[in-house]
Design brief:
5-stranded mixed beta sheet; two-stranded antiparallel sheet; elongated; alpha+beta; 484 residues; 7 strands
């Protein structure tokens, strides 16, 4: 049925295109015939102007009557050329064109003769030429030829108009038939498609049930694996770089420690003999300066290593902690956290604003509390000196099954080159005038990713920062931990 419908549509489209071409051809011929008709009238008007000017001059002997005559005479060649160009390809008009040319030439000769005689003062001779009625006969021939051309043109125009109306009427019925055929084909197609879809749905119900959410799970696992791989790479970098640096210092100062022990050993193992003065001096210098300095640097490096290891263990323990999904009122949580830093902000003339509708999500309260608390503390910690801090927190739905929490401030801001760096472990950006190890935002990102979300920052240096948290509205949908 579809094949038959398509064949009918193709036939109707073909007929419609043919009718359109026919109509275009008729339109072009109509326009050309109208130009022929206009040129016929132009030639007739010019010849009448010539005759009128001739008669006026002969009757009055007033040269003013020659003005329209001369203007018409100047415009005649162009009009004659136009009508000849329009009719040169029409065989049926060639004899009429030849007769018209002879009549116009004869009339122009008669006109010029009478005017020349009048100008020469031979008025009687000019009148005799007119009385011969040659000029009238030539003019009647011109009018007759032009009248026949105009009549033939009008007859052809009537035929074309009639044919155009017939073609338009046919096109209308073809269009109506085509519309009906399209409706039938579309209706049949829709019926077949829906029939096929119903059959297909019935045959695939079991498969769809088994594969439901498969793509989403694969995407989530891929994303988790990608993040895990990135975290492993970062931790590998930390182990090979950040932990190696203190070890290098320890090894270097142990070597210096060993060098400093040599004069001390020589002094101690002198067996009662008086050691050389330079040995005594080096031994004293080693005991008083070199060895204490080396021990101090070794102690500082080991303390640094201990801090790094503890930070890594902290993040590792947070990742291993079992999440406890529970209902959390976002407005209550943000208001509670804002009160913990309000006195630090208002004491310096600042303000804090919480703007959120009633939103409840299911997530791990402890992790979310740590995330937001860390962001609030950072805003207070890195406020711009000499400028009152303005801290804002707002939450809103972010599409199906997700919410967005924004924490913004007008603090120091973060340079564009440090946007990603601030989330790396042991990495800090900007002026390092505040205590810290550079684990805060790395800890925040680790926590929020454990909750199935993510964090990003928008900031301008010297103007402030906005941290944007994207969280699932129900943690139970993205993790197997917790009971429904």
């Amino acid at each position: 049925m579809l094949a038959v419908g398509v064949a009918i549509l193709i036939g109707m489209v073909s007929v419609s295109l043919w009718l359109v071409q026919v109509n275009n051809r008729y339109s072009q011929e109509t326009a050309e015939l109208r130009r022929v008709r206009a040129s016929v009238l132009d030639v007739l008007t010019v010849m009448q102007d010539i005759e009128t000017g001739q008669r006026g001059y002969l009757l009055t002997n007033n040269a003013d009557y020659l003005v329209p005559y001369e203007e018409a005479l100047r415009g005649l060649p162009q009009r004659r050329s136009r009508i000849q160009d329009l009719l040169k390809d029409r065989e049926q008009y060639q004899q009429a064109l030849q007769e018209l040319t002879r009549a116009i030439d004869a009339k122009l000769a008669e006109t010029r003769e009478t005017i020349d005689l009048q100008r020469a003062g031979r008025i009687n001779e000019a009148v005799d030429v007119v009385r011969n009625n040659d000029g009238k006969r030539f003019m009647n021939e011109i009018r007759g030829i032009l009248s026949r051309l105009q009549s033939d043109t009008d007859d052809r125009l009537r035929v074309i108009v009639s044919d155009q109306l017939d073609a338009a009427n046919t096109l209308r019925w073809v269009t109506v038939g085509g519309a009906l055929a399209i409706l039938l084909v579309v209706g049949g197609s829709i019926f077949l498609v829906f029939t096929y879809i119903r059959a297909l749905n019935r045959s695939r119900e079991d498969v769809d049930e088994l594969n439901r959410h498969l793509e989403e799970r694969v995407e989530e696992r891929t994303r988790d694996l990608r993040r895990a791989n990135q975290e492993i790479q970062r931790f590998a970098y930390i182990v090979t770089h950040d932990l190696r640096a203190p070890l290098v210092n320890i090894m270097g100062f142990l070597s210096e420690f060993d060098t400093s022990l040599k004069p001390v050993s020589s002094y101690v193992l002198a067996d009662g003999k008086a050691p050389p003065e330079d040995v005594v001096r080096e031994a004293r210098l080693a005991v008083q300066e070199d060895i204490p300095e080396a021990i101090g640097f070794i102690r500082s490096s080991t303390r640094k290593m201990d801090q790094l290891i503890n930070a890594i263990l902290k993040i590792s323990r947070d990742g291993q902690r079992k999440l406890q999904p529970e209902k959390v009122d976002i407005e209550t949580l943000l208001s509670s956290l804002s009160e913990t830093v309000r006195h630090q902000i208002t004491a310096n003339g600042g303000e804090i604003e919480v703007d959120t509708p009633k939103l409840t999500i299911v997530t791990d309260r402890i992790s979310l509390d740590q995330i937001l608390g860390n962001l609030f503390d950072n805003a207070v910690k890195y406020q711009m000196p000499g400028r009152a801090l303005r801290l804002t927190a707002r939450a809103y739905p972010a599409g199906r099954g997700a919410i967005c929490i924004e924490v913004g401030d007008n603090g120091r801001g973060i340079g564009e080159q440090d946007m990603e760096r601030v989330f790396e472990l042991f990495r800090r950006a900007g002026n390092q005038d505040q205590p810290g190890e550079g684990i805060g935002l790395a800890h925040v990102r680790s926590l929020i990713r454990n909750l199935g979300g993510d964090i990003k920052v928008e900031s301008k240096l010297g103007e402030g920062s906005t941290f944007i948290l994207l969280l699932p509205s129900d943690l139970r949908r993205v993790t197997k931990e917790g009971d429904p």
